[in-house]
Amino acid sequence: MTLLAASVKRASLTLTSRSIVRSFTNVMQQPITSRAMHIQSIPMWEGTGNNYAYLVTDDKSKEAVIIDPANPPEVLPVLNEKTESGAIKLTKIINTHHHHDHAGGNVEILKRFDLPIVGGKDCSKVTTTPEHKSQFTIGDSIKVTALHTPCHTQDSICYFFEDGAERVVFTGDTLFIGGCGRFFEGNAKEMHKALNETLASLPDDTKVYPGHEYTKGNVRFAKKVLNNDAIKKLDEYSQANKETQGKFTIGDEKQHNVFMRVNDKNIHDLVGETEPVQVMKALREMKDRS
Ligand SMILES: [Zn+2]
To answer: Is 252 a catalytic residue?
Structure first.
């Protein structure tokens, strides 16, 4: 029996399960890497826009941020209940981009909560626009890195959150599960960089939290472009589950998201292009027409 196994066995005889975890950590002589980040999805405009706001809380300090609280009638009841009960200390609004269905709730939220707004330069009432790759913390445990991903809008920012045990990214309308946003203010070169350089360079186990539940429609399009096991799996999951946010990772997107497979030979054959930016352009045009 190893020293570690012996210690755990000894601990299990006398201690509660919570103490065992602590004892285990002491034995390992490693920092505690327990999950500290709690994410609550708040669906908005269900059945039409199918947006998500996200309340992210550092479990230890209770410090919390609200991401894209665009529809206050659906978000404020949650924020009121959580702040009044002492479950959270709300410290920031974070916006992924300036569109009304993401940043359009800021003015109403500010009437109830006096908060700084971190977001792109064109977001309503924004107080801070973080530099690309700049970082800030939420409570003691969550480190946030801002990633500029201009294309859908020029002020689009994705936010990579890490708590030591877990990694997630809030992608607004840049990356969806199985898809990407329209190129309203940008071009294929920018979306290629956003998806296949900036977001693709995050750890593969990073969970994706997009701004909308668009997965079913994205899979319908993906199946017209490519047939692989990952797309079949995503199809099955989205048929069986209404919500897909946080269930797939950057690694999964590299398999099932056709906009992140611009080097796939089968897609090249379909669109008649091989250069990644031209493939991205062709795919987006096909999706817009579909
Ligand atoms: Zn948008």
So the answer is: no
List the CATH number of the domain containing 139: 3.60.15.10
Q: Calculate how far, in angstroms, residue 71's C-alpha sits from the geometric centre of ligand 1.
A: 14
Ordered DSSP codes for 144-184 = EEEEE--SSSTT-EEEEEE-SS-EEEEEETTEETTEE---S
Is 16 among the domain residues?
no
Q: Tell me the CA–centroid distance for residue 102 and ligand 1, in Å.
A: 7
Q: Decide if 99 is catalytic.
A: yes
**CA angle (247, 175, 193) in 5-degree steps:** 135
Of the chain, the end-to-end C-alpha distance in Å amounts to: 61
Q: At residue 237, what is the residue type?
A: Y
Could you say which of 163, 173, 235, 252 is catalytic? Answer: 173
Domain membership of residue 57 as a residue range: 37-289
| Tens digit of each residue's pLDDT (9 = 90 or more) over 250-273 | 999 999 999 999 999 999 999 999
- To the question of pTM greater than 0.85 for the whole model, the response is yes
98 CA from centroid of ligand 1 (Å): 7
The answer to whether 173 is a known catalytic residue is yes
Contact 213, 173 (CB under 8 A): no
